[in-house]
Specification:
single chain, about 425 residues, alpha/beta, 7-stranded mixed β-sheet, about 20% strand
């Protein structure tokens, strides 16, 4: 028989933004907390920003086959105003409610501020930030190192062309920004003593660790100063520090006498890793535990979730809990699986999944219906069946696992993560 390893007040399954934030909230409120996941979540592939509502709603339009399809609308300037309009009642942000979103954002900003990594922004205004390809994307909260890149600010944007660095093409990004009406150019720069790896001069994570060193930043400033004459603000790939990013950016900006900003690039995401590390540290400092690696399945007894079963090298281990929070994500992160055509499974507790027909839109660039598939919940974030009956009274679901939102198409991914996690944890303590 599987041995019982420990008992917790709260077990969170999943280590993306929703799971780590839920774990931090629970631990900070005094609950004995375990966050457990098979791997790190979406933080390591995301931009490291908080998207709350990025695109204006666009009504469904008829497609050539007579079925309706959804298109992405224009950039939203005010996420809060968009969410105050009547919306779909089963959308996760509508279920969580605007007060929960406001409180979640404030507490998340507080955690980041305390860690020395402040996030700029408010719910009533989106930043419009350049991407690595020179497009423009809206986001609500951004690290200080991103905010200076808002394309609506006056002046020409310089983009760093780092010799040998293969994950950021400054000339392409500058050309696309210029074609969209924003003044931009590429600036050739060298990286002194760059680490040599498979992809010289090293990956973003290697370079970020170098920029944590004040002596290295001083050397970089000396090498770059002449090449940057006449540049008002410089965009760099997101490499300006891993452990002390905010201080590193300010220091290098001061040494160069100009505004620097970062642009997210290919995974692994340095800005996303920063957020993961901040939340992990918040959990540990509050007495919680984070375990990454084991496969997890649900443990149910007498119509109630008793805990989880963790598959370890030493065999299965049981962990009991008063409450379980599912934060395993959707198809992208493994919380939902499609084992055969037309079938969807929730992989931990085999919860019913809300789907529909068709799965895909006629055109590739349209928003696809499957993006809205997921687990239905009530306003307490408890999973419900087709008759809206709560399935297990002590089980909750958050983030990308939830039905009713096209998180990428709406630009609502991290807003849903934060609001639903906050709603669950504060319901536990209410």
């Amino acid at each position: 028989m599987n041995s019982l390893q420990a008992k917790y007040d709260v077990i969170v399954i999943g280590a993306g933004l929703a799971g780590m934030f839920a774990g931090a909230l629970a631990a900070r409120r005094g609950a004995r907390t375990l966050v457990i996941a098979q791997g790190v979540g979406g933080t390591h592939v995301g931009a490291g920003t908080i998207d709350v509502w990025g695109y204006e709603p666009h009504p469904p339009t008829p497609s050539p086959d007579g079925k309706s399809r959804r298109e992405r609308g224009g950039l939203a300037t005010n996420p809060q105003a968009a969410l105050e309009k009547p919306g779909e009642p089963q959308h996760p942000l509508m279920l969580a409610g605007l007060p929960a979103l406001r409180d979640a954002v404030a507490e998340f900003q507080g955690i980041c501020e305390a860690a020395g990594y402040p996030l700029a922004g408010t719910l009533d205004r989106n930043f419009f930030l350049p991407t690595a390809l020179g497009a423009v994307r809206p986001t609500c909260l951004a690290p200080e190192s991103f905010a200076a890149g808002d394309v609506r600010q006056p002046g020409k944007i310089g983009l760093a062309r780092l010799a040998g660095f293969r994950d950021f093409f400054a000339d392409l990004a500058a050309a696309n920004l210029s074609a969209a009406g924003y003044s931009a150019c590429a600036v050739a720069l060298d990286l002194p003593h760059a680490p040599t790896r498979r992809d010289s001069p090293g990956g973003a994570t290697d370079l970020a660790r170098l920029f944590d060193d004040g002596n290295y930043r001083a050397e970089v400033a000396h090498h770059w100063r002449d090449a940057l004459k006449g540049v008002a603000r410089l965009g760099l790939p997101a490499i300006l520090g891993l452990e002390s990013a905010a201080a590193a950016r300010r220091d290098l900006s001061d040494k160069l006498g100009m505004e620097l900003f970062e642009i997210p690039i290919l995974p692994p995401s340095v800005p996303g890793m920063r957020l993961f590390n901040i939340l992990r540290d918040a959990i540990l400092e509050a007495g919680g535990r984070v375990t990454i690696g084991p496969h997890v399945t649900g443990w149910v007894e007498k119509g109630r979730v008793a805990g989880i079963v963790s598959e370890t090298a030493g065999g299965p281990r049981r962990y009991a809990a008063h409450s379980i929070i599912l934060a395993t994500g959707g198809f992208r992160h493994g919380g939902l699986e499609a084992p055969a055509k037309g079938q969807v499974e929730e992989r931990v507790f085999d919860l019913p999944v809300s789907t529909g027909e068709p799965w895909f839109a006629p055109l590739y660039w349209d928003t696809h219906p499957y993006a809205r598939f997921g687990v239905n919940v009530n306003d307490e974030m408890k999973p419900v069946d087709a008759n809206e009956k709560v399935i297990y009274p002590n089980l909750y679901a958050t983030g990308g696992l939830l039905a009713g939102a096209d998180r990428n198409g709406e630009g609502s991914r991290e807003g849903i993560d934060l609001a639903t996690a906050w709603k669950v944890v504060n319901g536990l303590n209410g």
